[in-house]
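ok here's the first one, seq then struct tokens
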Amino acid sequence: MQHPEPDTVLIVPAADVCRVLTMPRCIEAIDQVMRRVSQGKAQLPLRNFVRVPGGAGLFGAMTGCIEEPLAFGAKLISVFPRNADRGLPSHNGVVLVMDPGTGRVRAIMDGTSITAIRTAAATAVATRALARPDSRSLAILGAGEQAVTHLEAMTHVLELRRVRIWARSSEKAQAFARSEGARHAVPLEVSASVREAVDGADVICAVTAAREPILRGEWLAPGTHVNLVGASQADSREADDEVVRRGRYFVDLRLSAVNEAGELLHAIRAGLVTEQHLLGEIGAVLDGRLTGRRTGEDITIYKSLGIAAQDLAAAHVILDQAARERFGIRVRL
């Protein structure tokens, strides 16, 4: 697809991202790109983070190149966990898309909204592949922005009959239940504890800022599917060693997981599992090269760390629509 104005850069604000990058579109784009990643059709070096002086947060760069659709670029993103107390997103940044023919900057997009949508879409793709087909009950741990997009994503891949929400702040959990329950016409129950929330849940989405485990393996019923999304660094984890040990463990990218998946790394150091416990990437499950769930009794785990290929796939959806609608702001740098 040719850039309609080669000398300009397209600026895509959050409002346009959210309007164009619908959850169903993003789910299918992520499904396809994760297959390509596991087929070796992507270059995805480890992301690079620096700590902001004062301990308020991190600033990182995620670069990558995918072959199909051909795209390369980067996401520059800051992670400030305490932003939630200010009513601000914890993840803020931009996605830069380069022209594969000339290397020029092609587009700059709001990275906060892309991250929120594509992360939930990736979880939906993994849940569709790994959860039991008859899964009807969902537990969401956390009540922030990722909880909002994850609930939406789950409604596209599960026939939900029961949703429980837990958060450290009961006020936030109650507010989430009121607003999101009305928006999706799904009854949301607020749980007083993590154990109560996950009791009997078919699918669990952990989307918290926890640095120490809040989810324990002894609480998981046979057949549960667990999505671990919130902890994205080697020294943080949302689930304990027993969750890891009990589950068939899959990841978005092996390179990321063996360096950054805190739950897996802690269980390895504790001597409960080896690196071979990581069965493979979700893309290999999607294209049939790897068995995901074997039986209805299996506990399955998807560890989401987030990769640039997901951002680029989402950005391609937006660019494709921008060529048709001519939205956004065009500037000469």
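and now the second one, same deal
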Amino acid sequence: MSPRAKGVLIASTGTVAWATTAIFIRYLLTHYTLTPFTLAFWRDLFLALSLLLVFRVARPDILRLKWRDLPFLVIYGGVILAFFNASWTVSVDLNGAAVSTVMAYCSPAFAVALERLILKEPFTWRKGVAAVLSLIGCAGVAKAYAPQVWRLNPLGIVIGVTSGLAFAIYSLAGRWSAKRYASPWTVMTYGFLFAACALSLTQRPDTIFSLGTHWDGWLILATLSLVPTLIGYGLFTVSLRYLPASVCTVIASMEPAFTAIFAIFILGEQLEPLQWLGAALILAAVLLAQSGAVDNPSQSDVRLPLDKPVANVDN
């Protein structure tokens, strides 16, 4: 399998897992007394502690760091990842799952622009068209064509679009780290740890344990952290070793299409014809983006020793 095909397969699998997160988040926020920031904090903390425990026993080399690694990991986790997780969760709470998904997946357009400015990766017509198609497709899947959907408060709109920008920045940071660290799990583990530390600053005694003795709620929250979040973020981070960030974010924009399909079977919802058309446009964007991925070491095939101990790769 070529590096490009491997990256597409990894990113697509992670996206399928990611597609269930909105269902978990919406359920927790509507059925339990959780604030969005509290949910984001526990989600990140559960995942970080689980990864630390597993790697401490099975692969302690993955947890080894040098002092020079800390500034990037603190910014990556404590600022970028924490901000993305918090803004996405707040957006779901303020806007509902449909509109928040549309606004979060304006990220491919941001990624295409930032990728060119920051990482100096080439802009191609395929990337541009794919970003536009993904935006239109997401709007269709989430029924953004219905006027009543957009009757939102200004704060909801700002937070929703900001979550898309945050996801694009997170993708670019992950793309950069893929060229520097031998294992993506190093970046992910410490990223979520520092994100949890940052989000802990938003908590108060009356919010941090607001679930109380609702053990079913704790179980759902732990499942959210250890299944769709772990698989989704993990595989997305790995895929950035093989594909440019803009291509990975376009593939990730299949999430609302998968979410809609899951909703048919889990929640009994039905898709309208325009929603199916949106799903088709997202798929077309993915195929177009991956067909334009370039097979060279500087972009698609970052040849790093994935199974060797963690070490910095000199640029």
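notes on #2: Residues 293-315 have pLDDT under 50 and may be disordered. The CA atoms of residues 259 and 271 lie 11 Å apart.
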